[in-house]
């Protein structure tokens, strides 16, 4: 259609001859396909807004391609938890892209991380100082496991 209309208005013959010398207007496919379309398709497929009453929106980007791998949270802003959290953040940041956050309740921080597509949250709690452990929370399953601080980096490596 486009070539026929172009030929009509430009008054130029755009037809070609085939093997039988019959004149035909060729079919032209103009495919415009950039990476932005695929990116938006992925974003649309992976973004999962929930009902308002649940109040949770999750960006289900696969763990291994998530730009931010972990969020480090002290449970409270006292009892040495922020200091331990900062040490863990500094150590993990050498190998992974991480964020540190101590603002708001732990539940709200988990929700923010899920919205951002962060696959794992690491919570420093009361046992972190005495037992040298942290809680590792998975974004998709919401399962939590207690991990020794000195095994945390290797545990994350295995998960990615």
Notable features of this structure?
Rossmann fold; single chain; alpha/beta; 160 residues; 9 strands; two-stranded antiparallel sheet; rod-shaped
How would you describe what is shown here?
The structure is a single chain. With 160 residues, the chain is α/β, with parallel strands linked by helices. The protein has a domain at 57-159: Anticodon-binding domain (Rossmann fold). Helix content is 36%, strand content 21%. It has 6 helices and 9 strands, in the order H-E-E-H-E-E-E-H-E-H-E-H-E-E-H. It has helices at 2-10, 35-46, 81-92, 106-116, 126-131, 152-159, and strands spanning 16-17, 23-24, 47-49, 57-59, 70-74, 98-100, 120-124, 133-138, 144-148. The strands form 3 sheets. The chain has a 5-stranded mixed sheet with strand order 6-5-7-8-9, sandwiched between helices.
Topology:
Layout: H1 2-10, E1 16-17, E2 23-24, H2 35-46, E3 47-49, E4 57-59, E5 70-74, H3 81-92, E6 98-100, H4 106-116, E7 120-124, H5 126-131, E8 133-138, E9 144-148, H6 152-159
N- and C-termini, Cα separation:
51 Å
Strand order of the largest sheet: 6-5-7-8-9
CATH architecture of one domain: 3-Layer(aba) Sandwich
What overall form do the CA principal axes indicate?
rod-shaped
Element order, helices and strands?
A: HEEHEEEHEHEHEEH
- Low-confidence blocks of residues: none
Tell me how many strands there are. Answer: 9
The CATH fourth-level homologous superfamily of one domain:
Anticodon-binding domain
Strand count, sense and barrel status of the largest sheet are: 5 strands, mixed
In the CATH hierarchy, what is the class of one domain?
Alpha Beta
Secondary structure category: alpha/beta
What portion of the residues fall into strands of 2 or more residues?
15-25%
CATH fold type of one domain:
Rossmann fold
> How large is the radius of gyration?
27 Å
Helix content: 25-40%
Overall mean pLDDT stands at 88
Number of helices: 6
